[in-house]
Amino acid sequence: MRALLAALMLCSWGAPLVAGDFGRLAQSTGPANPGMKDWYSRQMQPDAWLTSCCGPGDVYWADKFEIGADGQFYAIVTDDRPDEILDAEGNIIAVRPHVDVGTRVLIPPIKHKDPRADPMPEPRHGVVWLRTFPDKWVYCYVSPPGDL
User: Fold this and answer.
1) Residues 23-44 as b or e (16 or more Cβ within 10 Å = b)
2) How confident is the model at residue 71 (pLDDT cuts 50, 70, 90)?
3) I need a labelling partner for 47 at 20 to 30 A (CA). Which of 2, 27, 107, 138 fits?
4) What residue segments make up the domains of the chain, in order of their start?
5) HEC per residue, the chain
């Protein structure tokens, strides 16, 4: 029970998962995508397999990555979607913290998920679940399609 409470507290305070609106989310700027909602709900942290990667309010597309001079893996945020998360009727139900396109995020090796284990529905993207305050802390990372 404590692990569940800790996981919920770690997710962004405005995350729809915590707010209970997870089932109503539009996962893109278009209509709600039930396949995407189901995919998000199944994602668990690779180093804490009973703990969710959190919700769409913590998700940023990261379709690029690089290996730094230090040999560490960095995801590069490519998500230019609005920060407002909408329900199927177009109402704002949450606002995720803004992260600029081009932001480099250090991905610890333990946070990498194998995209082949549970492929993301179309349209596919690299995805990083990220706590943005007070620092950038990664819940999970799925690499872009075809980039294993």
Assistant:
1) ebbbbeeeebbeebbebbeebb
2) very high
3) 27
4) 2-142
5) CHHHHHHHHHCCCCCHHHHCCHHHECCCCCCCCHHHHHHHHHCEECCEEEEECCCHHHEEECCEEEECCCCCEEEECCCCCCCEEEECCCCEEEECCCCCCCCEEECCHHHEECCCCCCCCCCCCCEEEEECCCCCEEEEEECCCCCC
Burial class (CB in 10 A: 0-12, 13-18, 19+), 71: exposed
pLDDT tens profile 85-136? 887 788 887 788 999 999 999 999 999 998 888 888 777 889 999 998 888 8
Q: Which residues pair with 141 in a beta bridge?
A: 112, 128
| The amino acid at 65 | F
More confident residue, 12 or 124: 124
Whether pTM > 0.85 for this model: the answer is no
